[in-house]
Amino acid sequence: MRPAVVGKAVAFLVLAVLCVQACSPQPAKEKPDSRPSVPAAPYLGNRGYALPASPFTRKGTVVTATCNMGSRWASVSVQAWDPETWQKRAEREFPIPSDAAFSNVQGYKAVNSPLVELCGVGPYSPSPYGVSTSEYMAPRIRALFDLAFTRMAVVLRDPRNKKDSHVGYVASGAAIEDVVRLGGAAGDDEQNAVMSPDGHSVWFTYTASDGRQRIGSRSAEGDHHLTDEGPAAGHGLPLIVTGQPARAVQANMVHLAPNGRRLTATAPKVFGTVFDTWNSSGPLTRTSARGAALLSGCVGVVGWLGDDRVLCRTSSGAFRTMDARTGRAVGAPVNVVGPQDGMVAEGMLVSPDGKRFIVSVHPPNAQQNDDDYAYEDPGFRAVPTTPGGSPTPISNPFLDRRTVFVSWS
Fold first, then answer.
1. Where is this region: Disordered (predicted)?
2. In terms of pLDDT, which residue wins out, 14 or 162?
3. Can you give the pTM of this predicted structure?
């Protein structure tokens, strides 16, 4: 073929390719509220974060959180414990500023925040999330802090406008006036503030300008601008932020499997208990719950015993190991209390090796924020996850019924 003919042929092919690219219909852009039902890559949880050396990041440490209140002050104490001797290794104090929503009171905007659940007192401050058993509370309150327990997220009410709320954080050991306010625009409706694993941002639910409910984040450094992270299911469900990069799941009883590939969660009208993790932020919905496993008879998830086993509190009040793939029980149940005891046991934490778990034993219908309830014998016990072992009482004067066990590393 002559060179001129070859040149014309090449030019024709180039034009044809360009026409296919320009003239073919382009795929529609994905809506902000949609999420692929199958994750594009494994979600590897919180591994890989470089944490500062401290008693709170030391392996073999149990961490608890307690709200303290005086006549003109409030704070949260976070304590690191040796799980063998139950001696305190370290303690950190997080001051609560006066404009922080740590209790819902009449005449002020009701705010959803795990801090309200931890600190709320009186008839106007029941759990903002409805259910306040230990299995529900422990992961919600854990989410207030970064992995190293150096910062605590707060929701702040605007003293000039009782309908506005903004997010911020306080650092451990800071003065009460040193709260970092990340929002502040008039008309803000930001709730459910929690920390990212590295402590570099606060995540929350908010109402966008078009009235839709969204998940957002604000950097703890710099200009604190709002980053939209995805859809939200209103303010009624809490957030848990995990992973690297960070992603939020809006649901209850969220526990990440050790390998980060699956998590437990519950949400209204969603069938299932164990789900694949995903690479985007959003609420647990029927779409994101495709392929879920239902843990049969499980009314409260205590935690993971391994990558494929979950410890549950069952409808009978016993605790059972469940296969996370099939949803069936494995082995015999572990009974902490009997029907003749007139008490109930609620799970809080599972040890990293999966051999023990912590329970709170108390009278039925007792509320965590009842004054008469708070100073009774707390009834905390460390219990073997397999039948036949003897529970060990957890006793220390600093542990009362308002103590929430939030982490066992």
1. 215-236
2. 162
3. 0.86
